Amino acid sequence: MIDIHFIVNPIAGQGRNNFSESFLQDYFEADKYNITIKSSIYKGHALVLSKESIFQKATIIVACGGDGTINEVASTLVGTSIQLGVIPIGSGNGLASTLNIPRNIHKALLLIKKNNKIRIDVGQINQRYFFSNTGFSFSASVIKNYEEQNKRTLSSYVTATLKSLFYYSKKNKLNIRINDKTDVTDPFLVFVSNSNTLGYDMSLTPKASLQDGLLDIVIVPKISVLKMLYFGLCLLLKKPNLLKEAICYQSDSLTLYRTQGAFYLSQIDGESSQINEETLLISIQRKALNVLV
Ligand SMILES: Nc1ncnc2c1ncn2[C@@H]1O[C@H](COP(=O)(O)OP(=O)(O)OP(=O)(O)O)[C@@H](O)[C@H]1O
Predict the structure, then answer these.
(1) CA 184, CA 132: separation in Å to the nearest integer?
(2) Ligand 1 centre from 139 Cα, in Å?
(3) How far apart are CA 274 and CA 276, in angstroms?
(4) Which residues pair with 291 in a beta bridge?
(5) CA–CA gap between residue 287 and residue 217 (Å, rounded)
(6) Nearest CA to ligand 1 atom 7
(7) Where is the DAGKc domain (predicted)?
(8) Strand order of the sheet with strand 189-193?
(9) Site to substitute for ligand 1 among 69, 97, 198, most atoms within 8 A of C-beta
(10) How far is the CA of 145 from the centre of ligand 1 (A)?
(11) Taking the complete model, does pTM exceed 0.90, yes or no?
């Protein structure tokens, strides 16, 4: 028997997400599969539920939600032989689109049934994992403003972006030293990605691959508001390097050392996070996660 566990985020995307056992049995026959369905009831709960599923000897754990839910579930699966399945019912669904997992639930379930396994790289910031991307400064501010709106739609992203542009100059001062040599004061953006899309079909790192053992890094120093708007256009065109100040490169690691500022405001796979540590080692674990695609 195959033990397949579904961890559902009921509020992801448009919300009201619910999977019944009878619906899932149309795909996963009772004589071959033991189906378990769990629903998260608070932020971070999918991580607890997934750990419990590992303890219950699940063979496949399916994250039903967006990048935040995938992050919580997948973080418990790094380095194990358990397969991650994804039903992308989130808003942006960045990682699912990079993996070509369809948003159509019927097609996504059939894909899991096909049992086609790949191994993907996993990003790491000190002790935490990211699977799609992590960002500081502007990228983190957009996510913080987005979360404050309590609505997970594209228009909320646009509003959050405009708000971040407007308030950018009032943000806390941050100085960082990159890789022990480059000092950047108030960077506009530090963005580190494992995947080649941000969700909503936008990209800052179009050349990134989930299987190349490399992180794609974009650093933009302090720039004028006009240049920020221009950079927004570059993002829509998926060509961040059209902005001459943007430094875009690939590496297997990056160290950030905070020389001024009380903390890092970051976003990790689209979830806002305040990091108090002074030094951040951002690295990649090659092919450390099994995914069904
Ligand atoms: N019952 C719940 N109530 C409130 N928040 C929840 C609940 N269950 C999960 N969460 C949190 O909801 C957040 C958003 O989830 P998720 O990222 O899956 O959806 P999304 O934001 O719509 O999609 P995407 O990240 O792809 O844009 C995550 O931080 C998750 O921990």
Answers:
(1) 24
(2) 18
(3) 7
(4) 84, 118
(5) 19
(6) 42
(7) 1-129
(8) 247-251, 215-220, 189-193, 133-137, 264-268, 271-275
(9) 69
(10) 15
(11) yes
Buried b (16+ CB within 10 A) or exposed e, 178-202: beeeeebebbbbbbbbbbbbbbeeb
Q: Where are the beta strands (DSSP E) in the chain?
A: 2-8, 33-39, 60-65, 83-88, 117-125, 128-130, 133-137, 175-178, 182-185, 189-193, 215-220, 247-251, 253-260, 264-268, 271-275, 279-292
Q: Is-contact 144 220, C-beta < 8 A?
A: no
Helix 45-55, helix 67-75: angle, nearest 10: 40
Task: For residue 164, give both structure tokens.
Answer: 């971040």
What is the C-alpha to C-alpha distance for residues 137 and 141, in angstroms, rounded to an integer? 6
pLDDT tens digits for range 117-169: 999 999 999 999 999 999 998 888 888 888 888 777 788 888 888 888 777 65
Ligand 1 probe mutation, 17, 43, 146, 268, most atoms within 8 A of CB: 43
Angle of helix 225-236 relative to helix 154-167, nearest 10 degrees? 160
The complex's ipTM works out to: 0.97
Q: Which residues approach ligand 1 with their CB closer than 6 A? A: 9-13, 40-45, 65-69, 72, 90-93, 152, 199, 270-271
- The closest-lying atom of ligand 1 relative to the alpha carbon of residue 88 is 26
Extract the tokens encoding 260.
């001024």
